[in-house]
Amino acid sequence: MKRFDLDYYLNGLKAENTVVLAQAITLIESKRRSDQDLGDLILTEILKEAEPSIRIGITGTPGVGKSSFIEGFGSFLISQGKKVAVLAIDPSSQRTGGSILGDKTRMEMLSKNPKAYIRPSASGSALGGVNNRTRESILLCEAAGFDAIIVETVGVGQSETLVNNMVDFFLLMIQPGSGDDLQGIKKGIMEMANGIVINKADGDQAKLAKRSKTDLLSALHLFAISDSGWQTQVELCSALEHKGFDKVWSMISSFEKQMKGNGLFAQNRCSQNVTWFEDRVNLGLLQVLTSQPELTRLHQQLKYKVQENECSVSQATAELLALARQLLA
Amino acid sequence: MKRFDLDYYLNGLKAENTVVLAQAITLIESKRRSDQDLGDLILTEILKEAEPSIRIGITGTPGVGKSSFIEGFGSFLISQGKKVAVLAIDPSSQRTGGSILGDKTRMEMLSKNPKAYIRPSASGSALGGVNNRTRESILLCEAAGFDAIIVETVGVGQSETLVNNMVDFFLLMIQPGSGDDLQGIKKGIMEMANGIVINKADGDQAKLAKRSKTDLLSALHLFAISDSGWQTQVELCSALEHKGFDKVWSMISSFEKQMKGNGLFAQNRCSQNVTWFEDRVNLGLLQVLTSQPELTRLHQQLKYKVQENECSVSQATAELLALARQLLA
């Protein structure tokens, strides 16, 4: 990996150079201390000149058509004068590198558009398989002039919460028919979603999609309206037939307008910064501790003992934590 | 929460008393230091007399019928002389407490069986929303005489890896038709799975289920055979019609026999202990650090500054980590 100086990155981002953007994200993802320090300098600088943007999170089970939707919706946003960046959070990529966005050809049209930037998810992972640099990547994309950021995540699980903590608008994508089986959609995700899009509302499924919308809307009434005063909306869409992108965008725009009106847009981003801070602190503190030679040595010894069944996990943990407490005393 | 002494828990578990089992799991899940210490004592004691057991992880997207399958399959296992415990990992429960196993009535038949124990997932969460006490709960269930442990997880995401790291056999459940759309099943999860069950192989879908099996088997040939020499198997099942449980069980039994034959069963559990140790150490080290008054004070101050936008996340993190390094120097 080639490294450059602070000015190189700052000038390149200012010039909206996507090659430099890619290099900056790679730098941010690096585990080297010096890279991280330089990355922090870049972030601190670019935050001084932050431009308005909208960050959209998209989730949905595999096969629901997220990639096709993003391909079409991204092109629609570009036609509306936006520059679109697509990022991904893929916590399950620990073993194989994952498939999410891994193949840029899945969004062939969009990836060729000079006003789009698609970043495949990093295969590297930190603290539990989560690539925790997506937040920083969003800021870098924005510094490079991208004002619509789409963060894709796979299916159900912790990734939902992660993405929800870094976007302005959280969109749940489902298929026609899912509304019948509300057990299938976890309440937590329904509550997180600011909007629900029923994709594949075309051909044979158009009618079913309409019924799903009705079912969903009545299900949504079971939930209390959120503190923000926003009522989750449901829209139909066909990524295949390029229909409904305008309605999805107008849903997101109404949300943005309402949240900016009541001050919650900025307030939400501030709370997200706190979460981001906590995540970075947790990760950083662990790195600080595990770089203590004495602790590292005992850690290795105990790990071996656990592996060989010479020591229970509880005993080993207690012994290591005792040393940590002693070092800090 | 009522607390008891070590002997109370040990005797209760030995007597296979499920009330005491529930109390012990609650103790283990507590965040109080004294509870955790007592929990560690219990774990260290029960590990001395560990009995043979089989730990089965089950994953699949919502709506695939995991609950109905576990209800039926659990009853089948009991008819084979087993005692069955059902636990859940639900990383998305951070906000609402989640729906997974939350409603015991979803497994009404099984939950009434005295040879079954069903533990709804804890709503409390630690380090990134993950209820990291499932591993300990497995051991407690085993100490209480349960020799078939089923760990359920929701959908795709990090939870798969978590569960895979604490079970002997990892089962992926899909619906008929999913085999056509291999993009929908992440390669990582396919590789993790020791067996795949196609549920809902009944009525109109019976034929489709058979074709899915063929598709899946040929897809599985794309993967190299795992280091263990085990080739992932695919079985059909209808939880609705109570069909196929015997085949699923015979698949799991063959796996168990083969892995015990080549020594990998025990070796896998030892490796899992190492992962468990690492998880506990990471969590414990953070607790040790964050209990330092000086660090806690600065942490609170910086958090406030981040919240009020007076300080960038990068700067705040750097300042806090500098203090941590200083404290350890």
UniProtKB/TrEMBL annotation, chains A, B:
UniProt KW Hydrolase keyword: yes
Q: Pfam families, alphabetically?
A: MeaB (PF03308)
InterPro entries per record: GTPase_ArgK, P-loop_NTPase
Keywords, A to Z?
A: Hydrolase
Q: What EC number(s) does its UniProt record assign?
A: 3.6.5.-
Which protein family is named in the record? Answer: Belongs to the SIMIBI class G3E GTPase family. ArgK/MeaB subfamily.
Alphabetized PANTHER family for the sequence: METHYLMALONIC ACIDURIA TYPE A PROTEIN, MITOCHONDRIAL, METHYLMALONYL-COA MUTASE
What's the protein name? Answer: Methylmalonyl Co-A mutase-associated GTPase MeaB
Organism, by scientific name, is Reichenbachiella carrageenanivorans
